[in-house]
């Protein structure tokens, strides 16, 4: 394929381990994240020239544990601007693994394009033996250049797998297959230039989403229920002016009795409460009179607490505050 007919893919770099460097090639920890620039990342993958024409931008150089609302806004707005250009066929974002699932879901709910948007990352720094970043980047660009990826929302390409931003989560602190979609499985696979989708995304996203990034981010925090927990954290958050609380409950989103009373008072004070689970997979069922109706809370469904927080922030920013309306948002997205 001649280069003049290759699709043009924008690669936006934000830092992370994929752009990390250590002094010793045997080290996969103790490195500095986000120090390798986007052009160096691309130069390490010469095979990209056979897949796409690359437009590269350095959006940020951060360790993704330090991801901020302001950077989310900048990233979403830049993706929308690039996607509006006729000559851009798709967009790839390189990111740190620590908060990749949160950024991916935020973009899944806010960017307004059917063009492929694909996040990728690495578990080993670029300086490491058997660094996984170069192949992940090649695969991400391959997916972004694939016509089948259009209309699927924001995707994550990692370790030869393609995940939906809504479903994917980090499941290991060190393994190169750290990302999984535990409840519903992968969307498809990418290997040796071949992209295969096995299922489609069904929940609303991107062009079908009512949400957008903006200057205001309502304060939404996460608390965890565990043996012997008190209501102290809930009371402190309400006093601080929090607008929403997501509970990482035990099992099916169950909450200790001591914390429950604090949450009842929080709801009476106008704070939105969402029940999620600290368990790594499964869904939180709406319990009706047994829990949610009495508490005035919302079930997060299959969203983990961190993604539930993203959706709750966006819903509150859009003026959705009543529990029934919030429940419908969580069922739709």
UniProtKB/TrEMBL annotation:
It comes from Caballeronia grimmiae. One of its GO terms (biological process) is asparagine metabolic process. NCBIfam families: asnASE_II (TIGR00520). The keyword Hydrolase applies. Residues 220-330 form the Asparaginase/glutaminase C-terminal domain. PROSITE patterns: ASN_GLN_ASE_1, ASN_GLN_ASE_2, ASN_GLN_ASE_3. SMART domains: Asparaginase. Keywords: Hydrolase. This is L-asparaginase. Residues 8-200 form the L-asparaginase N-terminal domain. SUPFAM superfamilies: Glutaminase/Asparaginase. The lineage of its organism: Bacteria, Pseudomonadati, Pseudomonadota, Betaproteobacteria, Burkholderiales. Pfam families: Asparaginase, Asparaginase_C. The keyword Isomerase does not apply. PANTHER family: 60 KDA LYSOPHOSPHOLIPASE (PTHR11707:SF28), L-ASPARAGINASE (PTHR11707). GO terms for molecular function: asparaginase activity. Substrate binds at residues 64, 97-98. The active site is at 17, 17 (o-isoaspartyl threonine intermediate), 97. Belongs to the asparaginase 1 family.
């Amino acid at each position: 394929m001649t280069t003049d007919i290759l699709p043009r893919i924008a690669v936006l770099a934000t830092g992370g381990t994929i752009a990390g460097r250590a002094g010793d090639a045997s080290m996969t920890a103790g490195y500095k994240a986000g120090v390798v620039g986007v052009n160096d990342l691309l130069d390490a993958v010469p095979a990209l020239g056979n897949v796409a024409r690359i437009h590269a931008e350095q959006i940020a150089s951060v360790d993704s544990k330090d991801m901020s609302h302001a950077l989310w806004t900048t990233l979403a707005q830049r993706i929308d601007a690039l996607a509006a250009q006729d000559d851009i066929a798709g967009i790839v974002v390189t990111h740190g693994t620590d908060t990749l699932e949160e950024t991916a879901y935020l973009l899944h709910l806010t960017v307004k394009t059917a063009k492929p948007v694909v996040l990728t990352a690495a578990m080993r720094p670029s300086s490491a033996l058997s660094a996984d970043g170069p192949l992940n980047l090649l695969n991400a660009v391959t997916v972004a250049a694939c016509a089948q990826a259009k209309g699927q929302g924001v995707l994550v390409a990692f370790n030869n797998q393609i995940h939906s931003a809504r479903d994917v989560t980090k499941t290991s602190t060190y393994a190169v297959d750290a990302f999984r979609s535990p409840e519903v499985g992968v969307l498809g696979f990418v290997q040796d230039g071949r992209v295969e989708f096995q299922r489609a995304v069904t929940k609303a996203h991107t062009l079908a989403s009512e949400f957008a990034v903006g200057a205001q981010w309502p304060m939404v925090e996460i608390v965890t229920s565990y043996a012997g927990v008190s209501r102290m954290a809930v009371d402190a958050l309400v006093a601080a002016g929090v607008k929403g609380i997501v509970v990482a409950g035990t099992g099916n989103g169950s909450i200790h009795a001591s914390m429950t009373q604090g949450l009842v008072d929080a709801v009476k004070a106008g704070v939105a409460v969402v029940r999620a689970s600290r368990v790594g997979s499964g869904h939180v069922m709406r319990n009706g009179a047994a829990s949610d109706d009495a508490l005035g809370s919302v079930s997060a469904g299959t969203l983990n607490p961190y993604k539930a927080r993203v959706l709750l922030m966006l819903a509150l920013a859009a003026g959705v505050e009543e529990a029934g309306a919030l429940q419908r948002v969580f069922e739709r997205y």
